[in-house]
Write a structure and sequence with these properties.
Blueprint: E1 7-8, H1 10-19, E2 27-35, E3 39-47, E4 54-58, E5 61-65, E6 77-83, E7 86-92, E8 98-99, E9 105-107
Parallel strand pairs: 1-6, 2-5
Antiparallel strand pairs: 2-3, 3-9, 4-5, 6-7, 8-9
Length: 108
């Protein structure tokens, strides 16, 4: 079974550039941890790149995913949404069988 790495939209890279992540030597870290109301939850934060990270680059910016989280995010899309309810990084994950209403918790 072929699994594709996650992809990052131009909108997400543009938002990282707006907040100056690379200028501070930081990358957007997307991780999956146990917890949340559906079993797994996304953790999104600015962080430094570590040795075992997959680094996705665009527009001079970086998004990193650790090796433990990578299988949970295969073929996912990392995007940025600026909606009436707020602005945030969002993950469209085809591996999630269900998710909660807040969009940060999912099950597989």
């Amino acid at each position: 079974m072929l699994t594709l790495p996650p992809k990052v939209t131009d909108r997400a890279f543009d938002r990282l550039a707006e907040i100056g992540a690379a200028a501070e030597g930081k990358a957007l870290r997307v991780a999956v941890e146990g917890g949340g109301c559906s079993g797994f939850q996304y953790e999104i934060a600015l962080d430094e790149v570590k040795d075992d990270d997959l680094v996705l680059e665009g527009a001079g910016q970086r998004v990193v995913i650790d090796s433990v989280s990578l299988p949970f995010l295969a073929s996912a899309t990392i995007d940025f949404a600026d909606e009436l309810i707020g602005a945030r990084f969002v993950i469209e994950n085809p591996n999630a069988t269900s998710s909660c209403g807040c969009g940060t918790s999912f099950s597989m």
